[in-house]
Amino acid sequence: MDGSGIHVHPTQDDPVVAGLSEAVGGPVGGRAGGTRWWTPLRVVLLMAAIGCALGLLQKAPCAEDTWGEGDTRYSQMCYSDLPFLYTLRGFAEHTYPYTDDEQTRVRYESMEYPVGISYWAWGTSYVTHWLSGSPPVEDRYERSVGDLQGDPEIQDEGRLYVAVNAVALAALTILAAGLLAGVNRRRPWDAAMFALAPTLALTALINWDLLAVAMVAGALWAWARDKPVLTGVLIGLGTATKLFPLFLLGALLVICLRDKRVRELALVVSSAVAAWVLTNAPAYLASSEQWKVFWSFNSERTADLGSIWLVIDQAGDLGIEAHTINAWSWAFFAVWCVGVFAIGMLAPETPRFTQLGFLIVAGFLLVNKVYSPQYVLWLLPLAVLARPRWRDQLVWQAGEVLYFATVWWYLGGYLEPARGGDAGFYWVAIVVRMLCELYLVVLVTRDVLRPHHDPVEKPPRAQVTTTRSNAVAV
Asked: What stretches pass through the bilayer (predicted)?
């Protein structure tokens, strides 16, 4: 532990950090002094703020290019959905995502995201209009969408829209880092691996996935504080924003069955369902057809970016249909969940929430028919707490960063062979990403089945050394 005797210090606990600390005098000692201001929590919050700032800086080349349709978004890897959807989903005209107005539906495609993202995207568009001086939008109704996209005034609004979302998402990211630091009071420094993750900076502004990530961080914190109702509410809100928080209920099922906490499980599930229903109700009541778009869009999707299905489909030139992929991917995921359930029930000790949650979400992403670059954020809060070791996190992050780069090269056409043909290097990057993810899966599974390997359960190395020295002295 550190000088306060409360927190596990990374220089005493993590071999990578301990090795790096030699350059500044070695691991912190038992008599090391501290400051009242720079607590571990505040340092982690600062790290998260820096990560968000780097993420905004990474998107700067596209902002300078007014988020145009050119190659900058691929060559500089700074693409974001946000400015395009601002115009293409009607937010520049205050269009509500869940309207059945015929003219609106002819003019704009429906939002293909869950309601939480749709509400947020619509709400931040109003903030953007207000900050832009509330320009009149009536004259925009008579112009084509293509004309609006090329309008310098609306392009400026699009840049501001990204900035508004960047500030709001940064606040949520900092909050998430703080919540993760509080999951295990002894190990607040584990959250630094979330705050400093290169993938956080690279993918934070591609879409609105950080909304669900913040909900997951809150759910992990609430469960650690024995607040089952709040845990369920946050899981429900997260599921209304992205599907993956739903899978956390599987982790809690194992924990509650093992520890005979049926009442807590019932509270979590019931509050999650209530939160999800109440969040979806306004959209469903306004337009059930538009509400269903998210579900139909995903069911009709064929093999898409980043998935093993894309590799199989392109390598074999198979043209696999959507319903075939749906059936097989859900079948594989069901088998995976059964395996995680068995591992959790057979483990010598009750696994941690983050361990089981990580294993379930990782399984979903491995067999899903699409893996957008920002999906790494789904795993990030779970991974850093499930396996809080810098070496292992860096191995996994390396695979994700490689994939992040290659997906933009692939979309930009930079990976196509000079004589034509498939972009085989992109397939390699997909497989490497999956192998790095499986590497982390194997380690977490081992920690569950052999808890003495779990870094969270092991005492810090410095503490072990001190204990042994005292024993010899006695």
From this structure: 160-183, 195-223, 229-253, 265-285, 327-346, 353-371, 394-411, 423-444
Residue listed under structure tokens 């290169």: 198
Question: How high is the mean pLDDT in each 10-residue block of the chain (474 residues)?
Answer: 57 70 56 69 96 94 81 91 94 92 89 96 96 88 88 91 97 98 94 96 96 98 97 98 97 97 97 98 95 91 93 91 94 98 97 98 96 96 96 97 96 81 89 98 97 82 41 33
